Amino acid sequence: MTDSCVQFRQVFKSYxxxxxxxxxxxxxxxxxxxxALVGESGSGKSTLLQIINGLVVPxxxxxxxxDERLDYSDLPTLRRRMGYAVQGAxxxxxxxxxxxxxxxxxxxxxxxxxxxxxxxxxxxxxELTADFSDRYPHSLSxxxxxxxxxxxxxxxxxxxxxxxxxxxxxxxxxxETIHQEFIRLQAAESRSIILVTHDMAEAVxxxxxxxxxxDGEIVQQGNLDEVRARPDDEYVSxxxxxxxVA
Length: 246
Fold this sequence. Notes:
Elements lengths: L3 E10 L8 E9 L3 E5 L6 H9 L6 E6 L2 E2 L5 H5 L2 E5 L10 H11 L4 H14 L16 H13 L5 E5 L7 H17 L3 E6 L2 H7 L2 E6 L2 E7 H6 L4 H9 L4
Parallel strand pairs: 3-8, 3-9, 6-7, 7-8
Antiparallel strand pairs: 1-2, 1-4, 4-5, 9-10
C-alpha cells in the first residue's frame, strides 16, 4: 500500500488574471493519519482541498489519489472514494436527517439492510439517538447539524475524508464536545483525513501531520511534534505562540 493518500506535483491554480492562489505546490499527504492544512485566509488551503475532490481543477501540475492520477472527467467515481464535510454542515434543508445521511448509499444501490446497519452505527458513534432521524436540519442545533454532516461524509466508509473548516462556526463548548467525538472517530475507523483549519490549537489537538501554507506556498510540513519543536521560521513560531500551544 502506498504511503501517501494524496500527492500534488507542481500544482498551480489561479482565478481569473490574478496571482496564483496555489503556486507550484508539491506535497505528499500520509495515509491513515489526520493531516491539518493550516494558514490564514487566502493561503490556499481550501483550494487544495477542492482540487482533491474536483470542485476546482488546477491549470498545471498533477494530482494523484492513492497513486492514481486524478481523472477530472469522471468526478462521480472520484468522489465515491472520499467523504466531504464543510463549515455550516451543508445539509439538504428539505431532507430529513436519515435521508441526508443515507443519500449517497441509496444512489449507490446499497440494500436497505446494509444502509440501516451503517446508519445506526454512525448515529451511535456520533451520539445521535434514533429520534433525530425524522427531523429536518432547521430543527437541529449547530453541533447536531455538524454531527449529521460527519455521518453523511462517513456513510460509504471512504478511505479519505476531506474536512473544510467543519467546526469553525460552532460555539466553544459545542466545539470542544465535537473535537472529543472526532478523536473517538479517528480511533473507531482508521482512515486518512485532511482537515483545513485556520486554528493552530485545533490542528494540534486533532492532527498528527501538519502542512502550513502562506500565500499559496508551503512554509513547512511534517510530523506535528517535529514541526512544533523545530519551526522553520518566525511565521511558524508565531502561529504556535498565537494559539497558546508553542
